[in-house]
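Practice problem 4.
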């Protein structure tokens, strides 16, 4: 995921990403602790290559989806892990990226928001965005993905349908 997002360079081979990318890889990555959630929308968006004007057009939707309300004006250092996920996910999902990367982001937060995020991921996928979702939840994978890779100790042990991959994951690891 970090190679796809450009954080690390591959040891061999190349990775080409077409279109805009929105990674949500680590809790709090791309945020400045001393800034408010509101200001971090613009910071995070600019890191992803979006102008302030582009971000401003999406700000209301980002805040509404995050359900942070007035807490959007608090410094993110005071946010819980669930609040950080809400903000990061909301930014990524509302910037019209063609490729979204989510690494275990749904492991944090309440079930209602997790469900809302899964619905949004499905909506983005149906609209033509490509989604890479890392999860240890076979149900999440089966519900929003059409392809699944099972990776064990750095080796691909399955590459196929999400439904079949989810079943194999349960057999092997649960």
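Answer key:
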């Amino acid at each position: 995921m970090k190679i796809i997002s450009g954080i690390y360079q591959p040891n061999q081979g190349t990775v080409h990403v077409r279109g805009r990318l929105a990674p949500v890889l680590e809790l709090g990555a791309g945020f400045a602790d001393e800034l408010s959630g509101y200001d971090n929308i613009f910071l995070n968006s600019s890191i992803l290559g979006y102008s302030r004007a582009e971000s401003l057009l999406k700000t209301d939707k980002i805040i509404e989806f995050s359900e942070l309300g007035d807490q959007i004006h608090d410094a993110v250092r005071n946010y819980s892990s669930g609040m950080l996920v809400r903000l990061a996910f909301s930014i990524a999902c509302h910037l019209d990226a063609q490729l979204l990367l989510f690494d275990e982001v749904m492991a944090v937060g309440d079930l209602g928001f997790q469900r809302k995020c899964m619905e949004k991921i499905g909506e983005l996928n149906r609209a033509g965005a490509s989604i890479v979702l890392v999860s240890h939840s076979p149900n999440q994978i089966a519900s929003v993905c059409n392809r699944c890779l099972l990776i064990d100790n750095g080796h691909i042990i399955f590459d196929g349908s999400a439904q079949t991959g989810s079943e194999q994951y349960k057999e092997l690891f649960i």
